[in-house]
Design brief:
The chain is mainly α and about 100 residues long. It contains 3 helices and no strands. It is about 75% helix and about 0% strand.
Length: about 100
């Protein structure tokens, strides 16, 4: 049996190390997650004081706001990644010439 078929504990990453690696690779993932939690927390807090608004309408608004924050964070992260990979190297190459 080859050594590639064996399981080792070093290959098994914990959830914290996976999240840390993901945050290092794309820093806007934790921002999106934090924003999602903040919007949901605020929505649950405002649940008591929604007035005559129906529960389903309140939950839909809360879901849309949370998804909007996450999509915005992903979009900013993609734009940042594109800048880092494509635009920034051109400035470095232009400065050397």
């Amino acid at each position: 049996m080859s050594s590639d078929d064996r399981w080792s504990a070093e290959e098994d990453d914990s959830q914290v190390s996976k999240l840390t690696r993901k945050a290092r690779d794309s820093p806007f993932v934790p921002v999106g997650m934090a924003g999602f939690v903040a919007v949901v927390g605020y929505g649950l807090y405002k649940l008591k004081h929604r007035g005559d608004q129906k529960m389903s309408v309140h939950l839909i608004h809360m879901r849309v706001a949370a998804q909007g924050f996450v999509v915005g964070a992903i979009t900013i992260g993609v734009l940042f990644s594109m800048y880092k990979d494509y635009v920034k190297p051109q400035f470095k190459n232009g400065a050397k010439k």
